[in-house]
Amino acid sequence: MSTLEDTKPVAVALGGVRGGPDVRTLRRDSWWRFPSATAVFLTVVVVYLAWAIFQNAYYFAGASFHRDLISPFYSPCITGSCVPGARGTFLVLHWWTITPAIFAAVLPGGLRVTCYYYRKAYYRSFWQSPPACGVADGHTVYTGETRFPLVFQNLHRYFFFLAIPFAVILTIDAVMAFRLPGDGGIGVSLGSLVLVVNAVLLWLYLMSCHYCRHVCGGNVDKFSKHPLRYQTWRILTPLNHRHMEIAWISLFWVTFADLYVRLVASGWITDPKFF
Ligand code: FES
Predict the structure, then answer these.
(1) Is residue 179 within 6 Å of ligand 1 at its C-beta?
(2) Atom number of ligand 1 nearest to Cα 205
(3) Which residue among 151, 163, 180, 228 is least crowded, i.e. fewest CB within 10 A of its CB?
(4) Would you call 5 helix, strand, or coil by DSSP?
(5) Separation of 1 CA from ligand 1 center, angstroms?
(6) How many Å apart are CA 52 and CA 43, to the nearest integer?
(7) Confidence grade of residue 235 (pLDDT, cut at 50, 70, 90)
(8) DSSP string covering 243-273
(9) Residue 219 CA, ligand 1 centroid: distance in Å
(10) Contact 242, 172 (CB under 8 A)
(11) Lowest-pLDDT range of 2-16, 158-172, 173-187, 240-254
(12) Helix H or strand E encompassing 61
C-alpha cells in the first residue's frame, strides 16, 4: 500500500503549482468525478433550456386540456406572442414578438449564473480554475472577478432582488394550477403538484442565497440590538448551509417542470387528476 510518505519529494513553488511544475496534484482519490459530472449535467441542462426557451410553443396547457399549467420559463407571459389564456392581464407588451421566455432566461437565469455556488461549480468543471481542492489551476494567470466579463458576477445582489417577483408569480401559477377548467372546477393533478414543488424550491433557493443571509442578518455588530434580524439569521443559516443541494435540486426541478408542461401541452402525456 502506498502512502504519501512513499511518494518522491517534489519541489513546492510558493505561489505556483503545488507539487512542482510537472505534478498537477498529489491527490490519489477520484477528485475529477465531481467536476466531470457537473460539466455533463450543466451542459445537458443548458442545451435543453436554450431549446425550450426558443421553441416558443407547447409551454401552456389550458382549457382545451382542462388544465391551467404554464411552464415556469414562460411566466409571466406578458408579450404579444403569448398563446391565448397564458397571457397575463396586468401588462402586455404587444410589440414583443419573440419568445417571452427571455425574461426568465435573463432575470432568474442571471441569478443562477452569478450564484456563488454555481460559480464554484462551473469555474471548477469548465474553467478548471482550479478543478478541485489541491489540484493545480488550469491557467497560469489568476485575475479573480476584477475584470470583464467576470466583474459582472458582482451583479448577483441585484439579480437576487429582480428574481423575487418571479418567485411570487410562480407561486400564483402554482395556486392557479389547481383550477381544472371544464373538469370539475378545482382539483389536484400531478401537474399542479409539480408546479407547487417548483415554487417551494425557488423560494428555498432564494432564502438560502448567501446574499439573502447577508442582507437579512449580516453587517450587524450586536445581535442583541437587532432581535428580528437575529431571528431571521437563525432561520436562514441552516438553509444557507444547504444552498448547494438546494441549487442542484431546484435547477433539476424547474427543468423537469418545463418538460412536464411541454409533454402535456403537446399531447404526449395526459396530466393525471387525483381528485
Ligand atoms: S443564489 Fe446562490 S449565492 Fe445567491
Answers:
(1) no
(2) 1
(3) 228
(4) helix
(5) 42
(6) 14
(7) very high
(8) HHHHHHHHHHHHHHHHHHHHHHHTTSS---B
(9) 18
(10) no
(11) 2-16
(12) strand 60-61
Q: Name the amino acid, one letter, at 235.
A: I
114's CB contacts (< 8 A; 6+ apart) are: 152, 153, 155, 156, 159
Atom of ligand 1 nearest to the CA of 115: 2
Q: Degrees (nearest 5) of the Cα angle 99, 101, 102?
A: 85
Ligand 1: residue whose CA is nearest its atom 2: 115
Measured between alpha carbons, how far apart are the two ends of the chain, in Å? Answer: 61
Q: Give the helix/strand (H/E) hosting 186.
A: strand 185-186
Q: Is the CB of 27 under 6 A from ligand 1?
A: no
The grid coordinates of residue 230 equal: 437575529
Cα separation, 91 vs 242, whole angstroms: 36
What does the alpha-carbon distance between residue 52 and residue 255 come to, in Å, rounded to a whole number?
9
pLDDT in tens, 102-120: 989 999 999 999 999 999 9
Name the residue of 113, 117, 251 to mutate for ligand 1: max ligand atoms within 8 A of Cβ: 117
Query: Which residue from 162, 166, 201, 208 has its CB within 8 A of the most atoms of ligand 1, so it is best to mutate?
Result: 208
Phi, psi dihedral angles at 46 (to 5 degrees): -65, -40
Does the model's pTM come out above 0.85?
Answer: yes
Cα radius of gyration (the chain): 23
C-alpha span between 97 and 15 (Å, rounded):
53
Q: Which of 94-103, 109-118, 159-168, 236-245 comes out lowest in average pLDDT?
A: 94-103
Q: Does 209 sit in the ligand 1 pocket, CB within 6 Å? A: yes
CB 150 within 8 Å of CB 144: yes
In this structure, which residue's CA is closest to atom 4 in ligand 1? 209
Cα separation of 134 and 33, whole Å?
15
> Which cell is 8 given?
518522491
Name the band, by pLDDT with cuts 50, 70 and 90, for residue 21.
low
